[in-house]
Amino acid sequence: MNLNDFADWQEKMWRGDGTAWERKPRDVTVAALGLAGESGEVVEHFKKFFRDGKEYHRKHNLALELGDVAFYWVRLCRAAGYEPEEILDLNVFKLEEKFPGRK
Question: Which of 55, 79, 84, 99 could form a disulfide with 3 if both were Cys (CB 3.0 to 4.6 A apart)?
Answer without folding.
Answer: 84
